[in-house]
């Protein structure tokens, strides 16, 4: 590798005025500034006043080879730098300490995330911490990190951790994460200015660590608190709830104590919580409900405090979440004029309008005239749990909502039916892709279909979907599928996809207006399903037809070709019958196709087969290619091109 001599570089650089050097350094990105600082002491002094803001710094220590090093990552998370090789050669920790403190030499430099890994678990690491403390105090350096993660040991000296923690800038530090921290260490740092400035605290412990008791009274100022493997009392629980009730909090603030043990009975805890006024409030979602669940009033009348506890043998999970009280919202909303409510709802996106409709009957009546246009609706049914639910996805395919939890709790299908039909209550609402999955394969699903038909006919609701995907079953009742299919709006429906559909079902729906309005039909089947015979004469109006596992005759092929020749089609339109069986020989099919005027096969010699023929169409610019292979039939429209002379010589 060719490198420039370092002294030659510096000699030119040092002749520049200091102000010009600083201007050049300010034009560099954060990583280049970081590398410049490590060139020489002169570079460090020039760049000390130029801030560096990076995403993360990882301070690591090896347990075996006994040296420390740093890893830096930029704000985009794409660039990465480490000094592991240099620190491995030096092997006394001084280089890692200098690199770490030189980063914070400028008072404006800061890092978003700082992780101190395993440094408290070895004697060499503890020596490195002592060096950091001594040098930082001597140079009056503050460590400016928004989030700090410390990996400790149960035998870690609390005074040493406190001294190190006091090096941080309390005005910058907001989040503290402690791993395997003993209770005495947490008690030691709770008195510091840095700890009081934190709004988020996470204390997690590995499975092998012993349970610790943390004095929760020192943690009451924390807005978001997460602790695992804790041991708490009834008084601790009282203090947490009491402090939360009086705080100026916002929706979503949470405190969680996971995998805990308690030194109080359920009765003692219940007696303590009974001192707080209960609120009616909206209950939490089903996933948050535990054996002991209650809603407590807050000082702010617009909020409520949800408290739930669960006891699994010796484990207890406590979650307290602040949520907005539903009644307070609706009382203000209902005082608005209906016209203003409709203007507000009209400004929302489609999925928000959909969620608004499901709040109450009044919301439904107000929003009935506001259309919803979404990309897809997926109507699902579980064969085992015997309930149906819906998934909605927006036009961009990035947002989705589901009502699975509500339908699982109700379990009789009525919520799923109402949600589907409420979507189409407005005559302007429509969906691009509607998929009905497994609903025809169980008795509960068939009951749900009958309920959809009855309610849609009673309310005169049409299902407006451009594309419908029906997962049918071989034993499905054809009249039931026909009744359901007649609910669709024929002016909107363009594409129909059928899975495992028997021939009698297709024959039944082929009589409907909806079937005749479709321009594209796809009939697919699983590999183990029996081939079906579809009456292809009912499908001659389709521009795009694809069928798998069909059983067809020579007359069916003749009818398809005859109808396609006379249609006003475009290049690319096709009919495909895959994995089929024939009730005719190749000779019978060939004799019928001889009735059509053909032109020489345009295929190259290596692809030439006797079962491919090109037929003239009514449009002189197009030609119809018919391929009758043993396992499939394919008919497609191609653009007519002049044939080369060497093709014509073959005939």
Structure description:
It is a single chain. The protein has 651 residues and is an alpha/beta fold. The chain folds into 3 domains: 15-198, no CATH class; 336-518, no CATH class; 558-651, TATA-Binding Protein. The chain has 25 helices and 28 strands. The strands form 3 sheets. Strands 1, 2, 3, 4, 5, 6, 7, 8, 9, 10, 11, 12 and 13 form a 13-stranded mixed β-sheet that branches. The chain is extended and about 100 Å long. One of its GO terms (biological process) is innate immune response. This is F-box domain-containing protein. InterPro entries: DUF38/FTH_CAE_spp, F-box-like_dom_sf, F-box_dom, FB224.
Task: Please specify the SSE layout and strand pairing.
Elements: H1 6-14, H2 18-26, H3 30-37, H4 41-47, E1 53-61, E2 68-73, E3 80-82, H5 84-90, H6 94-103, E4 110-117, H7 123-139, E5 145-151, H8 158-165, E6 175-179, H9 183-189, H10 193-197, E7 200-204, E8 224-228, E9 231-232, H11 234-246, E10 254-262, H12 266-273, E11 292-297, E12 303-312, E13 315-324, H13 326-334, H14 338-346, H15 350-357, H16 361-367, E14 373-381, E15 388-393, E16 400-402, H17 404-410, H18 414-423, E17 430-437, H19 443-459, E18 465-471, H20 478-485, E19 495-499, H21 503-509, H22 513-517, E20 520-524, E21 544-548, E22 551-552, H23 554-566, E23 574-578, E24 581-582, H24 586-593, E25 598-599, E26 612-616, E27 622-628, E28 633-639, H25 645-648
Parallel strand pairs: 1-4, 4-5, 5-6, 6-7, 7-8, 8-10, 9-10, 14-17, 17-18, 18-19, 19-20, 20-21, 21-23, 22-24
Antiparallel strand pairs: 1-2, 2-3, 10-13, 11-12, 12-13, 14-15, 15-16, 23-28, 25-26, 26-27, 27-28
Protein name: F-box domain-containing protein
Domain F-box: 16-56, 336-376
